[in-house]
Amino acid sequence: MARRSVPARREDRVWSPIRRLWDLFDLRSDLDEIFDELMEAPFITRSLWSAGFPAVDVAETENEVVVKAEIPGIDPKNVEVNVTEDTLEIKGEIKDEWEEKDVGYCRKERYCGTFERSITLPVKVKQDEVKASYKDGILTISLPKVEPSKPKARKVEIEVEK
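Structure tokens predicted for Hsp20/alpha crystallin family protein:
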């Protein structure tokens, strides 16, 4: 964007009709540049939009962490769940129902394609005992907590130096 210096005093500026017209053109081009930069901004990209998909609820009980993810209309075969001690990852693909080439859209708002969501868990979980179920568009994942290890006290001998 072009930056112009502003006169220190108002009297220094010549106010002719032509000067006013050029000022309007400059203002218009500056505004066009601002809007062009906004439209190229990274916050409009699809990856950030899909970062919140699927929507999840994370709840913690005494023995487990329960994650519920909304994935309506998705075949559970197209969803992959991976878990580490402290992270849950949900990946999947939403297939386009209209795979025919002769279908023309008047409007298309539903997302089709792959998605991925990584959730940091509030506690460490037992990876081997994780269970997942799918019903009515809700994926429920039960993650049993790792029992906190009790610190063992160890007596340390004190050496006396001579």
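The two ends are 77 Å apart (CA to CA).
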